[in-house]
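Lab notebook, bench 4. The sequencing result for the construct came back, and we need a structural model before the next group meeting so we can plan mutations. Quick request posted to the team channel:

Model the 3D structure of this chain.
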Amino acid sequence: MKVLKNKVIEAVSEETGIRLNPKDINITAEDNTLVIQLWDEELFNSEYEDESELKEEEYAEEITNQIFEEYYDLRERLIEMKIDHLNSKYLPDLNASLIEKLRKNKVVESVIEVLDFEFIDLNANTTGVTSDGRDYPVIALRITDFEDIEHNIKIDAYKDPLVLDHDFITNELLKKIRGKI
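Done. Here's the predicted structure in token form:
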């Protein structure tokens, strides 16, 4: 499976520009079904006949080709999966921490209640910004009330675990909130 994992990582990097870490990808083979997961979400599955073929370079090449055939734009799919992973893994705790800090700073409850927290692809939400198709696009934590407040904190999508300075984010958000109220 190491051959297959390395082949997938190498092919993804060459074709999409996105560098996967070995811990991002999980490959399992059970009951003649091969499953490839990224960040605990299934990317691809395939049937195999003999477990010995899982160790062959040719099989790894074939599976890699099938992955690229299955996804018209694998890069786009990987970006969606990464953002989903960030939102599911980091957002609940981050959201609770930031709301607690806002309450301690005496932000009115009606403002806190309408805030939305989400990791987003900034390039997809900004007109005129394009990506060269290499690496991840600019990914940010967006905090908004969908009317007056919009605050984006760019992150390094390769950091794992993701490191966010909750106090800094809170202070920057407080400036935006108090500037709009």
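The first strand starts at residue 25 and ends at 30.
Will bring this to the meeting.
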